[in-house]
Write a structure and sequence with these properties.
Largest sheet: 8 strands, mixed
Number of helices: 18
Radius of gyration: 28 Å
Strand content: 15-25%
Length: 666
Amino acid sequence: MGTAEPMSATRSRGGPAQYGEASIRVLKGLEPVRQRPGMYTRTESPLHIIQEVIDNSADEILAGFGSHIDVRVGADGAVSVEDDGRGIPVGLHPEEKVPVVEIVFTRLHAGGKFDKRAGGAYSFSGGLHGVGVSVTNALSKRLEVVVWRDRREHRIAFAGGEVVEPLRSRALAATDKQSGTRVTVWPDGKYFDSARVSVEELERVLRSKAMLMPGTQVSLRVASSGLERSWRFDGGLGEYLRGALGGELVAPILEAEGYAPADDASFAEGEGARWVLAWTDEGPVARESFVNLIPTTAGGTHESGLREGVFTAVRAFAEAHGALPKGVRLLPEDVFARVSFVLSAKVLDPQFQGQVKERLNSRDAVRLIVSFVRPQLEFWLNQHPEHGRRIAELAVQQAQARTRALQKIEKRKGSAVAVLPGKLTDCESTDIARNELFLVEGDSAGGSAKLGRDKEYQAILPLRGKVLNTWEVERDRLFGNAEVHDIAVAIGVDPHGTDGEVDLGGLRYGKICILADADVDGAHIQVLLLTLFFRHFPRLIETGHVYVARPPLFRLDVGPQGRRPARRLYCLDEEERVATMAKLQDEGVRPEAVEIGRFKGLGEMTAQQLWETTMNPDTRRLLPVSLGTLDQRATVDTMTMLMGRGEAHSRKAWLEMHGNDVEADV
C-alpha cells in the first residue's frame, strides 16, 4: 500500500550487503543537487532553473529597485536575464572570506532572503529556500554573471557548479550601465528531458511578472525565431484579468488590496495581498495566484483564504438582502464556481510545498487573506446592491443545480436505511463525494475532533483501544468484533475480496480518513486499520477513498522577532522539527526564544489545534492510500509476513535485516 510499502535491501551474490562506516557518503557543495535534481527542480525542461534567476530580478523590483527585466534566448540555447537593480554584492563575505557573488551561486542555503530584520535586504521575496540560483548553477554546463555595482563591472564564470573564471573587475565609464545584474545560463541537457526552454511557457512567466509589477518593463527576445515581445501593465491585475476573460461579466471587475499595518498583532507589517475578482455567467474561468511574485500553479492556503473570504461575504449579503430562497443552502463551491481571479499575496516567511514552490502551505495565510478580502467585499456588495444581487443569484443557481444532481443520485440508491452506530457523530451533508469520515483513536481525541470538525461534511467515529488484527479473520466472522462492525456499517459497504463485483452504491463518505496519534502506538493502530481495508475492503483503496491523516508530533511557539509577531508552528516529526529549528536560526531566531512542546496524543490537542493542523482541508496533510508499485501477490506475501500469527520467525529475520534502515520513536 502506498503509505507503508515494505523496505527493500540490496544483496550481493555472496550474501547480505555490508553496512559500515564506509557506507555513509557525505555529499558536499552542490553535489546533492546533481545527485537528485528532481528534489530541487522540475526535470522536464530547464524552465524552473531559469525562473529562479528571473525571480531574483523580480525580488529586486519588489524591494523597490529597478524597473526593467530583459530576457534573451540565444541560438545555442543559452538564456540570459538582465535587470537594473542594485547588483549582487561582490565583496568578501565577513565570515566566509569569499566573494558574496560566488557564495550565492555555489552554496545551498545562502542568500539575502533569509534576512528578515526590519530594513533587511529583502522584506518580502519568493526565494526563501536559499537553494535557488545555486541549483541553476549546479545543473548548468556554464553560467556567467556580470554585475554593475559601485562604478565597476564585475564578472565571474562557473562550469558544472564550480568557479572557472574567478571574479575580475574593471572601472565603468560614465556612459556605461551603472547598476544591475546579468546572468547567462547554459542548461546541462543530461539533467532534463529537453535542454531547451519552452518559449511559450517563458512568455507566460514573463507576462505574469509584468502584470504583478505595474510600471515594470519586461522583454523577451529569441534569436532562433526572431521573436521579440515586451510587456508593461500600468493597470496591473485588473488590466491583466480583463484580457483573459471570455464570458459576459455579471458585475464590474473588483480590484482591491489590503496590508497589515505596523501595529497589527497577528501579522507582520506589509503582509497582505492584492486581488481582482470577476464573475462571468458562462465559459471557462481564469484563475492565477502568486506569493511574493512566485506563481503558485497548484494554489494553496492563500487561495483557500480568498475562497473563504468571498464565500462568507456573498453568503452574508444574500442572507441580509433576502436573496437566498427557502431550502437553499450555499456552499463555498457554489459561490466560487463562476469566479475568475488573480491573487498576489505578500507573506513574510512563506512555506511552500517543495522547492518548485507550486503550492503555498503556510497555515496563517488563510487567516491573512480572509481578514482583508471579507470586509472589503462585504462593503462593496452593500455599496452596490444591484451587482450583489446578480452575484448572489448566480451562486443560488449553482446551489440549485448541485442539489438537483444529488437528488438524482439519491433516487438510484433506494430507500434502505442502515442502523448507524450510536457513537458515530454524522455529518449533515448528503453529498457523498464531499463527505469525510474520520476514524479517530480514543474517546478523548474523538471529543476534540467532534468539537473541531466542520459538521456540514465531516463525521467522527471514535475507536476504543487497539483494533482487531483482521489479516487472518474470515469475512463471515468480522462482525463479531464491535469496532470492525461499527466501521463497516458507518462506511456503508460490506466486506469483500478482490474478485467479483462489489457494490459501492451504499458508500456514505468520499473520504475515509484514519486519524491516529503521531507516536508508535498511533502508527500501530494505523497499520491495523490499513490491514482491515486492504484485506476486507480492497475496492475502497483501489477507488481512492482511503486516506491517512498526519497530525503533528511537535508544536513550536516562537516569540516575536522584529517585524514578525509571535507565531505557532507545527512539525510532523523529529526530522521536520530539526529542519524547522535550523530555518528559524537562519532567520536570526534564538533557540531560547522557541518553546517546544510534544503532543503525547491527539487528546492533548484543543479542538482548534486539531482542526487547523489535521482536519481543515486548507491546512491539513492528508495522504491518499494506494496499492503502490508492488504486484498484488508480492504485497499479500509481505503483509502475511508482517501480520500473520504464525510468521514470528520471518518477522524477526526481516527486522534484523532492516533494523538499521529506520529510526524508531520509542
